[in-house]
Design brief:
This protein is of the alpha/beta class. It folds into 2 domains: 67 residues, Helicase, Ruva Protein, domain 3; 129 residues, Dna Topoisomerase Vi A Subunit, Chain: A, domain 2, CATH 3.40.1360.10. Helices cover 44% and strands 13% of the residues. The chain has a 5-stranded mixed beta sheet. Strands 1-2 form a two-stranded antiparallel ribbon. Strand 3, helix 5 and strand 4 form a beta-alpha-beta unit. Helix 1 packs across helix 2. The protein binds zinc ion. The site of zinc ion has 8 residues, from helix 4.
């Protein structure tokens, strides 16, 4: 059949070209988010061309991470220890808690290097459409934390409908405790994609936060 390798859709023809071992590798790589069939092929051939020990290090990194990474018992971010390095750092301001949607958003704020407080990672947002309610994200844990010494809760969920709904909900929960509640400045086009926003924009959103 006159199908070029580059444009071949994933079908039995491809299996015949490569044999099942390579096909399986391409299929596994292609199941990852953001990896199309062409990229999967490119990665597969790259991996095959690597020295054996490099491939073993890669495979080991995958399985080790999956086995050992868990949620920080304090802030809920992904870590390989009981408490993450941020929560364990005595130099951080533990009285300022920034609430973010996920660990990627935390990483985006950390990259700015200008936030010295701690975080609370929700691991999701309230989304009636997807059937995700307040009890499905880490709000109970947040309220438990706020029983300690906390001066300010900065709500840094995204500006999507879900992010705003979640921010509103948290604000209503926290306000009665008397703790100051602020919201990062709007205009940050988030929605789980804080990592793609430049640091200046993030800092501006943080500096321009308003009290709710
Ligand atoms: Zn932590």
């Amino acid at each position: 059949m006159a199908v070029s390798v580059a444009s071949a859709a994933w079908d039995s023809d491809t299996m015949e070209y490569y044999g099942s071992q390579i096909s399986n590798l391409i299929e596994q790589l292609g199941s990852l988010p953001g990896i199309g069939h062409k990229t999967a092929q490119r990665l597969a051939f790259h991996i095959i061309s690597l020295p054996q020990e490099k491939v073993e290090a890669l495979a080991s990194a995958l399985t080790q991470a999956r086995t050992h990474v868990r949620y920080c018992t304090e802030c809920g971010t992904l870590t390989d220890q009981e408490r993450c390095p941020i929560c364990r750092d005595p130099k951080r301001d533990h009285r300022t808690v920034m609430v973010v949607e996920n660990s990627r958003d935390l990483a985006a704020y950390e990259k700015t290097g200008h936030y010295s407080g701690v975080y609370h990672v929700l691991q999701g947002v309230i989304s009636p459409q997807l059937g995700i309610g307040p009890s499905d994200i880490r709000l109970k844990e947040l309220m438990q934390r706020l029983q300690g010494d906390v001066d300010e809760v900065i709500i840094a969920t995204g500006s999507s409908l879900e992010g705003e709904t979640t921010a509103m909900y948290i604000s209503r929960l926290v306000k009665p405790t008397g703790i100051k509640v602020t919201r990062i400045a709007s205009g940050v086009p988030v929605g789980g994609d804080l990592e793609y926003i430049d640091e200046v924009t993030l800092l501006r959103a943080l500096d321009g936060r308003v009290e709710l």
